[in-house]
Amino acid sequence: MMMIPFEILIITNYTTVVKMGLIDTLVALIIPFTSSIFYTYILRNFFLSIPDSLYYSARVDGANNWRYLWRIMVPIAKPALVTIALLNAIASWNSFLWTMIATNSTAVRTLPFGLYAFMSSSGIRYERLMAAATIVVVPMILLFVLFRKNIVSGVSRGGLKG
Hints:
By secondary structure, the protein is mainly alpha-helical. The protein has helices at residues 10-19, 26-30, 37-48, 52-60, 65-76, 78-93, 97-102, 111-114, 126-158; strands spanning 119-120, 123-124. The longest helix is centred in the C-terminal third of the chain and has 33 residues, at 126-158.
């Protein structure tokens, strides 16, 4: 599944969104990006890198499996979870094709899709397009700069074999 590009899944995603009655809504832009095999792989490997002795210690202290997950595993996995959230946000932010297919009105379209409005039949105003592209890219750059340590630690630790 990691080798299948998002574009292959568009027909299935579109059919699902139409059957749920979510076409032309913000939820339709979010749902296809809520799960990914790549993110599952990162999280799985991150959890495999945590030693089993931590689980046994928690069980000795009286924690059940649910409490162990939420009180110990999730706080330890914070870098991986932040990495997954940020990579997912960037992927959905940059999605042009899905936005074009899943929305009909301009009210719910994303900012990167708004850059398409700078192209017209009379030509492209490159100076305005580049200024708008800079403004559109600033939020993602800020997210990366603020969370770069979490991204690097989440990806590097999630890629280790346990």
